[in-house]
Amino acid sequence: MSTVDAAILKPRKQFGETFFGRVWTGLTRSPAGFAGTVLVLGIVLFSFVGPLVVNQDNPTDTTQIWTEPSSAHWLGTQYEGKDTFTILVNSGAEPIWVGTLAALMAVFVAVVFGSAAGYFRGKIDAVLLQLTDVTVTIPQFLLMLAVVAFFDDIPAWGIAFVVGSTMWAFLFRSIRAQVMSLKEREFVEAARLQDLGTARIVFREILPNMAGFIFVNFVIAVNQAIYAIVGLYVLGLMPSGTPNWGLMIHQSWSQNFYLNPVAMPFVLAPLLMIVLFTIGLVTMGRGLDQALNPRLRER
Amino acid sequence: MSNAPLLKLSGMEQVFETKKGPVPAVGGVDLEVKPGKVLCLVGESGCGKTTTARAAAGLTKPTAGTVEFRGKNLAEMTAAERGQYRRAVQYIHQDPYAALNPTRTVFSTLSAGLKKHGIVKNRTEARAKAAELLQLVDLTPPESYLDSYPHQLSGGQRQRVNVARSLALNPDLLICDESTSMLDVSIRVSLLNTLGRLRDELDVGFLFITHDLAVAKYFAWDGEIAVMYLGKVVEHGPTPEVIGNPQHPYTKALIGAVCEPDPDLAKANRSAEQLRSAEIPSLRDLPAGCAFHPRCPAFEPGLCDAAEPPLQATPSRRKLSCHVVHRDLQRATPDATLTFDAVPGSRRPETESAL
């Protein structure tokens, strides 16, 4: 064989070719994806960094009940005379991290079980399929209600666990189906012919082909989990310790604040946060999908 | 060079169970591939060429018969032996678009096996080796291909990446399933020459599947051709014999069906006997006796539809399964309807270096 040029030995790797670089270019390239990313990052920073910046001293003040927005109180005050903006800043963290944790759990379980079931088939597949059949038939929200009602003082990660454990089944099914179809493809056979080993075939050959799909589903799962958690708070079923969006909506609703025009900032702020976060997640998901698919990446 | 076969299929059968009943895709095939030799499997679509090749590559388990690699039965191999077999026998798919993972670069595809089996120690070595492999299949300069994704390559380039990958593990036997049929003619010849170099220099054995008799003639001239029809080998012998002087009516029909640019030769070919029917019988409902008899121009009622003809040796250095030909041979009537150059456009160059 001829001698090899030294230039070959170094991969021409630009920023856009590492995994994170690819994710970043994907997210920032299309205007929609960029806007979504900015929204999501903005709300995450607002909810996690905001509480460190904003003055946490927010006492009950009977002289300041339901005031209009002003320079001292950007969103006015609420029914106890507390600053609405400070409450809003503190309200985002819990739904976001609990929702993300729940989605992480659900996606992790779905990916691991789904690819095992789809790749190995046989007994493992039959057992897992039965398990999803059972999981799918349990009404999600009722289970959550029952668990929350039974365990009075359930910690936030407990909620994440309950929400996550009901969400994995559908994703499991679609991942299993995709793995079953992908493993019959010739490039997987070619990998098997090279004796690359099961782990490498599943994780390096099959799963990257559905990375976009998994990421988009993760984003959707975060969304669903946030809805579920906020929903539990709205229904007033959760211990009302930490401030959060759901609790604000619950108060607006159960105490008829929405009839009071001065209370509008308090009523609308959490709704707006949830809507913006959802829109941000969905558009960001689309950008990610394109970023992780080498064929879409080039367009 | 030992003369022991690399690969030996004995009585190999493959029956697929379907809802409409069993389909005997391959019904008892005996073949051998020797190191540095080519065995060409030819036949029309659906005759079991690919099924045979897949069983030989260990991708499917034959329902009966054995596949032996270096004298060891595939079904009885230990895990270590099987690993060795897996690396020594590589299979090149027909479709270059489907056989490369769209999410991996050429380098990643080529280096996966090298890294896994400890052929290279680190990334620098892997890149050097991958570049070497690309040069071997004429993808030069390698650095402009290493970091490309499959969708950035043309069909011919992808197929050559496929071939490069199969060469990465230094195989002893390559099974090529119509591997050149998707390439354009110029690339086909250069790829065949590359493979020919491996055959001659590294003693790699080939099980070469094709429906293109010109390719078979070019690549397997020193080897053998086995003609398959409906899951059985009907004629098997050295390439020059089978192509130049086909004996089985099906082989004659196959060779007669090749397009011929020379009008005189074309006329001669047209005068060759025509098939009685173009329709291929269903594998689920094979005709009684010789499976070819409903289409065979030499069909004789009472003889051909009564019993299955065995694959017997003939004096002309080949094995053949045809009642009529064997009977005529016993009566010693020589049969030569087609000329040596029956496959047109594929006259073997006198000197190989001319290409």
Low-confidence stretches of chain B: 335-342, 345-355
Distance between the termini of chain B: 28 Å
Q: Which class do the helix and strand fractions of chain A yield?
A: mainly alpha
Helix content of chain A: over 70%
Shape of chain A: globular
Shape by Cα distribution of chain B: globular
- Largest interface chains and counts: A-B, 34 and 40 residues
* Terminal Cα span of chain A: 38 Å
| CATH architecture group name of chain A | Orthogonal Bundle
- In N-to-C order, the SSE pattern of chain B is EEEHEEHEHHHHEHEHEEHHHEEH
CATH topology of chain A: MetI-like fold
Sequence of secondary-structure elements of chain A: HHHHHHHHHHHHHHH
Radius of gyration of chain A: 24 Å
In quaternary terms, these chains amount to: heterodimer
Q: What do we call the CATH homologous superfamily of chain A?
A: MetI-like
Q: Mean pLDDT across all residues of chain A, rounded?
A: 83
Q: For the largest sheet of chain B, list the strands in their spatial order.
A: 6-7-8-3-9-10-12-11
Helix content of chain B: 25-40%
Structure notes:
The complex is a heterodimer of chains A (299) and B (355). Chain A is mainly α. Helices cover 71% and strands 0% of the residues of chain A. In chain A, α3 (31-48) crosses α14 (264-292) and α6 (93-120) runs parallel beside α9 (156-182). The model of chain A has no long low-confidence stretch (mean pLDDT 83). Chain B has 2 domains: 7-222, Rossmann fold (3-Layer(aba) Sandwich), CATH 3.40.50.300; 240-330, no CATH class. Helix content of chain B is 32%, strand content 20%. Chain B has 12 helices and 12 strands. The longest helix of chain B has 18 residues, at 185-202. Chains A and B meet through α1, α10 and α11 of A and α2, α3, α4 and α6 of B.
